[in-house]
Write a structure and sequence with these properties.
The structure is a single chain. Helix content is 81%, strand content 0%. The protein has 445 residues and is mostly helical. The chain has one domain. It starts with a helix and ends in a 15-residue tail after the last helix.
């Protein structure tokens, strides 16, 4: 371990992950407070309906969203290192144009489709207006340009502070809604304002950082003109969009399917279990956000980035074992204390889902390694195949075992994703001598 931390890149990965962990820890506690107050302030059916409204907007955003932050890191980081501000402006302008176009398209589609599917999801006519209001958040939900800007400038400390905004506003609003007995409408508006506040804060931080660096015109949106200057730009954004849209929709779409096949109450229980699982796996997500920008600066034909991946995976897996033990011991009393005894059923589901926790956390470097090696399409195939298998298993298992089946399908989906990502990553490592540094930093001077 001492030799590992002698590596400056590895120290940077851990340091940036620590920054993000600081914000996420506080955000997780505040978010849990908001969920607890919502669970206690409404009936299980109304709580489930709130989750369905939030999941629908998130699901539409996840499907339509381009991973522009990855595009900015891949093309913008090497441009910034060599002082090519003109290329950096093209990169951020192209990313902003994609965010703007996809966000508006997603909002229009979400609003148009919602009245047709609301009954299937269990959203009655009484709640349709609030659900349509929530869809107006899709443009800000889908924008990843400000995150990419802060990451390429290595401002993970700013991202850590921003991660507190949404849960803080949500916690304050949930407290007011609970104490003042504002009911379902109060909690929906709280969730709406919290999401909007967090998104706007992220934009404000990125704009301030651009001004501090004196990078002018970086947020002038464009699509075709800047793309002509960036090799394989369209190929990269379409591939990463498809891959992440498939898997990012996992959580929201799962909630919608559970709600449609079972009930809003079941959707609420599934959401509670999934929230605890996501919180438990946050260390891996934070390591991934720090890991990706650093290895994109390294030569994929060398052993260095691959060694970093193994070391990071081992640390993440070790953390997962500790977290797993804590969940098994303290999960039930925490859920009972936080949400009330009527939601304790979610703990049984959480126990089942955490069986895949170690695998999910230890496998986090796989996707970043594929992008580094120029194997974006392999990542897309892996994500798509695993998500398709998960969807089929979700429908079959729910019909066979009810809510318990949803947990079984979740575990199987994590295992499928890990397996399908591991195979092309191992092949890329075996053929690493054929890779060049230009594979992932091919930006014209």
């Amino acid at each position: 371990m001492k030799r590992w931390f002698a590596d400056g890149v590895f120290r940077t990965i851990v340091r940036n992950a620590a920054y993000l962990a600081t914000g996420k820890l506080g955000g997780a506690l505040l978010g849990l407070l908001a969920l607890a107050l919502a669970g206690r302030g409404m009936s299980p059916a109304m709580f489930g309906t709130l989750i369905l409204i939030h999941s629908y907007a998130n699901g539409v955003g996840a499907v339509i969203k381009f991973q522009t932050w990855q595009f900015i890191v891949r093309y913008g980081a090497p441009a910034l290192e060599r002082g090519d501000i003109a290329t950096l402006r093209d990169v951020t302008g192209f990313a902003f144009g994609l965010d703007l176009a996809s966000g508006l398209l997603g909002m229009v589609c979400g609003l148009a489709v919602l009245p047709c599917v609301s009954d299937w999801f269990g959203l009655g006519a009484d709640h349709l207006g609030l659900a349509m209001l929530y869809c107006t958040l899709i443009p800000t939900m889908t924008a990843a340009t400000p995150t990419g800007i802060l990451r390429v400038f290595d401002r993970f400390d700013q991202i850590a502070w921003q991660q507190l905004v949404t849960p803080l506003v949500r916690g304050i609003g949930a407290t007011i809604s609970y104490v003042a007995d504002l009911g379902f409408t109060g909690f929906v508006l709280t969730w709406y304002l919290a999401d909007l506040s967090g998104d706007l804060c992220l934009w404000a931080m990125s704009v301030r950082e651009l001004r501090r660096r004196e990078v002018k015109g970086a947020l002038k949106p464009g699509l075709f003109r800047p793309a002509r200057k960036l090799p394989r730009a369209w190929s990269f954004v379409w591939t990463t969009n498809a891959a992440h849209s498939i898997w990012a929709a996992w959580g929201p779409v799962s909630n919608l399917i559970v709600g449609a096949l079972l009930s809003p109450v079941a959707a609420g229980l599934f959401k509670i279990a999934a929230t605890f699982f996501d919180s438990a796996s946050k260390p891996a997500e934070l390591m991934s956000r720090s890991f990706y920008p650093e290895i994109m600066r390294l030569d994929p034909s060398s052993r260095h980035p691959w060694q970093l991946a193994v070391r990071s995976a081992l640390i993440s897996g070790a953390i997962a074992i500790v977290v797993l033990l804590l969940v098994m011991v303290g999960g039930e009393p925490v859920i009972a204390l936080t949400f009330g005894k009527r939601y304790v059923e979610a703990y049984d589901l959480l126990q089942l889902m955490t069986l895949s926790l170690v695998m999910a956390m230890a496998a986090f470097p796989l996707e970043s390694l594929l992008y580094m090696a120029g194997r974006e399409r392999s990542a897309l195939v892996a994500e798509g195949t695993a998500a398709l298998g998960y969807a089929v298993l979700l429908f079959v298992a729910i019909h066979a075992y009810g809510l318990w089946g949803a947990g079984l399908a979740y575990v199987a989906g994590v295992c499928l994703k890990t397996l399908f990502m591991l195979v092309p990553t191992a092949l890329a490592y075996r053929n690493r001598n054929n890779l060049t540094h230009e594979t992932h930093v091919a930006v014209p001077a």
